[in-house]
Amino acid sequence: MATSSASATLSSQTPQTTEISNENSRKTRKEPLESMPEILESMIRERGDFRKARLAHIEGWRFLGGGLLISSLEVTIIGTALITISSHLGDFERSAWVVTTYLATYCAFVIVFARVSDIFGRRTTWLVALGFFVLASVACGAAQTMTQLIVFRALQGIGGGGLYALAMTVATEVPGKLRAPINSILSSVFALASAAGPLIGGAIATGTSWRWVFLLNVPIGVVVFIVSFIIFPTNPFPLSYSLEAYRRIDYVGFFLSVGSIELLALSLQSGGVNYRWDSGSMIALLTITGCCWIAFFAWEMALSSKLWKSKALPIWPCNLFFRRIIGSGLLAALFSGIGFIAVIVYLPQRFQIQNGDPPIMAGVRMLAYLLVSSLFAGLAAVAVVFKNVLFPLMLFSSIMQIVGLGLLSTLPTTVGIFPGQYGYQVILGIGFGIALSVLPLITRMEITLFDHAINMGAVTQSRLIGSLIGVGFGEIVLQSRLWTRLSTILTPEELGLIRQSMSNASKLSPYKHAAVQNEFGKDCNLIFRICMYISIGCLLATLLCYKRKPISIKELEKTESTLATLEAQEIGETSRRGDC
Suppose 214 and one of 73, 140, 187, 295 were both cysteines; which one would form an S-S bond, judging by CB atoms 3.0 to 4.6 Å apart? Predict the structure, then answer.
């Protein structure tokens, strides 16, 4: 959520440390301004003419907020409505797939859309993503079975990933005079999505049909599409839509990336549920998943290092990943995403199942976490403008995540609400809010202007893979422990009713109802405890991001401004010569 606001705050920051060559790297450290023409020339040779996809100006940038809002809402709005949706469709056991499939395709297509926009331009890619998202939202609202909803959510995630990727990419390309306003707008959008999502989801689930959780996107999306079609600026220089442009798409990387992420989601959701972990089917699935990931990274490494002679642009920046600070930052984003989504998904479910709250009250009880995370994401973005304190902030964030998740794992499993949990939410909100804002900036400080879009896609994708794993771990705990223990308390008929809908627990005897609530609370505590241990990995990855002499932010702003000016001049001269 807050990642975009932080990135927009420092949208003028691009370090001069991309190692196109050792010589250029040394020049940028010593003479950032004088060496810009030589650096630019080397970058252009390395990157090719996809730089023409960058926008020279984008005066009508406010329309980005609408698309980003509906995309971000779909991550948070579903948590408080999920119990109601599963009750109406009669399939609580598979309800987590509604979250997982959206995250999986959202995650898989973020970096794909970022790279495709480098080839076909921001405007075309944005409109395609927005149109796809709106149509998929209509399909989700019309779903009649859980299977249909799961499939349509996967399609919706494709469009949502595209909207996020393009909004973040365009935010790095606004003129200097608009950087502060767009930071304010995007920060407000994420704060609104974070705080209002659970409330809107709870209000819809309580007061009207759950289908409006998805149909709400349609009127907003249609308006944004029309406005975008009219005012979204075209590229200042002609883009090539020839066969040569299509050859620059990394088809192999695309299919391996999507396949790897989808197989990971399938493995996490099927293990211990459809198949035993030690069964032949599960071992085969895990083996294929691992092979796909290995093949993906091997292919992207070959493409990035030019070992494989191809004109395709790699969708994953392996050359960036192997730099210590960038690689560590991506790992920290992955570990942080696990705990963040676990709280978003399982805490409101706990309020509804264990404490008996209606959906809208579950959303209200989440406000401490959601508002504080949005507030501290904005504060962190502002703080780093004045001084480069990215590492201390991220170190503090990692510690707060560990403490907050540890405290949350100690919540009592009785029916009543423990008041101290709001304080735990505040601690978590501080930790995750700062991380969402700071992590993209840590990696961005190590790249150049031409890698902004792909860097933002990589950080976002890492965080979303973490979110996917977080939901997967949660379901493994619930499916492997909850149903096993409840089978010793409930009759097969009663257990079948609970599998269809957790709301059926209220129809049980008081003793059995209390047992269901207690067991679900225990499993939620275990989920948060696992996430706490994983957050230690975030702390270790953060320590690897340490830099003895961090680059001055003001110097970076000046350097990137100079580079952007030279880039526009070079593209214009090339276009006038007819070489593009």
Answer: 140
Give the predicted TM-score (pTM) of the model. 0.76
The residue written with tokens 């579950």 in the block is 362
pLDDT digits (tens, 9 = 90+) for 377-396: 878 877 877 778 888 999 99
Structural domain ending residue among the three candidates 291, 312, 333: 312
Whether the CB-CB separation of 7 and 168 falls below 8 Å is answered with yes
Residue 425 tokens, joined: 């939410």
Q: Are residues 232 and 378 in the same domain?
A: yes
Helices (H) and strands (E) in the chain, counts: 25, 0
Q: How far apart are CA 466 and CA 336, in angstroms?
A: 7
Count of beta carbons in the 10 Å neighbourhood of residue 559: 25
In this structure, which amino acid lies at residue 514? A
* Overall number of domains in the chain: 2
Q: What length is written for the chain?
A: 580
CA torsion, ordered 182, 565, 456, 25, to nearest 10 deg:
-140
Same domain assignment for residues 466 and 561 = yes
Q: What is the C-alpha to C-alpha distance for residues 358 and 83, in angstroms, rounded to an integer?
A: 10
- Give 334's contacts (C-beta < 8 A, 6+ positions apart): 462, 463, 465, 466, 469
Local structure of 275: helix, strand or coil: strand
The pLDDT of residue 49 is 45
> Are 26 and 19 in contact, with CB atoms under 8 Å apart?
no
Residue type, 305: S
What single-letter amino acid sits at 528? F
Find the angle CA(120)-CA(568)-CA(163) to the nearest 5 degrees.
Answer: 35
Report in angstroms the alpha-carbon separations of 540 from 150, 331, 398, 404. 36, 10, 9, 17
Shared domain for 285 and 323, answered yes or no, is no
Residue range of the domain that includes 229: 3-7+51-249+313-573
Over the stretch 130-142, which tens digit does the pLDDT of each residue have? 999 999 999 999 9
Q: Strand (E) positions, 394-499?
A: none
Is residue 332 in a domain?
yes
Q: DSSP label at 16? A: S
Q: Could you say which of 312, 345, 361 is where a domain stops?
A: 312
Strand partners, 271: 275
Residue 417 Ramachandran class (φ > 0 left, ψ -120 to 50 alpha, else beta): beta
| pLDDT (0 to 100) of residue 526 | 92
